[in-house]
């Protein structure tokens, strides 16, 4: 048994915007998000386009949900089929974060996704009341100011707030789960409702006779650790509602852990086309690092083969002698890693990451490459200024104009979809 008296108890709210993209489009058209029939898709001109969001009424009346295809939507004139507008959704997400910031400081807000966030309300009792009263006030403010419906889960940690949101609050509006409620509220739920338990883990647990969270919570911890290692211990304690991850975050510290950028290509790429995409990715990462005056030492590269190849992907990293925020140096490191990859087939995914960050004033110029690096650094800063003023497509590498280039297409999109 877990001794809950030894665990920290916070007031954590997990806020989810109901059918976010569809709700934003409904408000934008002066429709009721809860009754309008709206489907947001990647591209209306492609029958196979994925439904990115379906309004609650569309789900209820026609059974259309996120993940369905455009051709599955019935030809009903009441249904609004809308191309995704990621810029609008991100602006609305920022407005929600700003609203939350009126209740709590920024370190008490953890944005999980464009439509979901945690907010810690410790110490707000004298201003707004208990956690449930704070949730009601936030929910009402979001509805009045932005016109959007929301659901809020409340718990003593992020895990419980998220679990009660997904399994109860999305139906009732607001729900709370304390440690004392875990056995009653969570143990009857299927094991796959815990983070980290996918199809394969679910199947392995089912083979042990574990089907619901209560089975998992009352299973032998030593046996779980022996069979699944650290993951076994984690899911065991999660079944008890235990989550010791920090509830307060430092946004600046989160950024400084590293930067990454990746792409799933629109077609299979041969080995000689990869350098163009890698240069585009390192350009973007270098610009983001310069923006916060950071430089990185460790460069990682991951390549994923086309599913038709039947090959495992490649992932390697290397640490540079000195930290850098120059795209050419990051590119050179990636190409050295490509040389180790022994590419044997077509590539479909490319991912570049830079970590081990320091302030860029800690960069030391090498005796031989120093002058050249300084010119590259000045060039990078000049490009940053031009793109900030005139847009990302104002200046870019000539190689992006080749068939292998992805830059121009990506500048027209946010999150993989057109703005």
TrEMBL record:
Cited InterPro entries: DNA/RNA_pol_sf, DNA_pol_Y-fam_lit_finger_sf, DNA_pol_Y-fam_little_finger, DNA_polymerase-Y, PolY_HhH_motif, Rev_trsase/Diguanyl_cyclase, UmuC
UniProt domain UmuC: residue ranges: 12-198
Keywords for this protein: DNA-directed DNA polymerase, Mutator protein, Nucleotidyltransferase, Transferase
UniProt family annotation: Belongs to the DNA polymerase type-Y family.
Listed name of the protein: DNA polymerase V
Organism name: Paenibacillus enshidis
The organism's taxonomic lineage, starting at the top: Bacteria, Bacillati, Bacillota, Bacilli, Bacillales
């Amino acid at each position: 048994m877990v001794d809950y008296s030894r665990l920290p108890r916070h007031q954590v709210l997990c806020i989810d915007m109901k059918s976010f993209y569809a709700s934003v489009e409904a408000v934008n058209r002066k429709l009721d998000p809860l009754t309008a029939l709206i489907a947001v898709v990647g591209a209306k001109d492609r029958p196979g386009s994925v439904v990115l969001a379906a309004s609650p009424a569309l789900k209820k009346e026609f059974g259309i949900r996120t993940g369905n295809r455009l051709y599955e939507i019935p030809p009903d004139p009441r249904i609004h089929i809308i191309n995704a507008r990621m810029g609008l959704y991100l602006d609305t997400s920022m407005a929600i974060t700003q609203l939350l910031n009126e209740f709590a400081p920024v370190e008490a807000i953890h944005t999980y996704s464009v439509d979901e966030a945690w907010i810690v309300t410790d110490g707000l009792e004298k201003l707004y009341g208990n956690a449930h009263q704070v949730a009601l006030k936030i929910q009402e403010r979001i509805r009045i100011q932005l016109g959007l419906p929301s659901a809020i889960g409340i718990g003593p940690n992020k895990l419980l707030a998220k679990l009660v949101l997904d399994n109860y609050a999305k139906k009732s509006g607001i729900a709370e789960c304390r440690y004392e409620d875990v056995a009653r509220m969570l143990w009857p739920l299927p094991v796959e409702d815990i983070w980290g338990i996918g199809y394969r883990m679910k199947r392995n647990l089912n083979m042990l006779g574990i089907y619901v969270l209560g089975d998992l919570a009352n299973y032998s911890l030593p046996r779980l650790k022996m069979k699944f290692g650290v993951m076994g211990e984690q899911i065991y304690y999660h079944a008890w509602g235990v989550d010791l991850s920090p509830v307060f975050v430092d946004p600046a510290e989160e950024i400084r852990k590293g930067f990454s950028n990746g792409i799933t290509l629109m077609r299979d790429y041969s080995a000689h086309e990869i350098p163009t995409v890698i240069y585009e990715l390192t350009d973007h990462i270098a610009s983001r690092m310069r923006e916060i005056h950071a430089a990185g030492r460790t460069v990682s590269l991951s390549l994923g083969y086309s599913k038709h190849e039947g090959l495992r992907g490649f992932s390697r990293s290397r640490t540079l002698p000195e930290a850098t925020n120059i795209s050419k140096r990051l590119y050179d490191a990636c190409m050295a890693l490509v040389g180790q990859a022994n590419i044997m087939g077509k590539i479909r995914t490319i991912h570049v990451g830079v970590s081990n960050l320091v302030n860029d004033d800690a960069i030391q110029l090498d005796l031989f490459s120093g002058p050249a690096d300084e010119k590259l650094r000045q060039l990078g800063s000049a490009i940053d200024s031009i793109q900030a003023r005139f847009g990302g497509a104002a200046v870019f590498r000539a190689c992006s104009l080749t068939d292998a280039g992805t830059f121009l297409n990506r500048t027209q999109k946010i999150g993989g979809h057109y703005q």
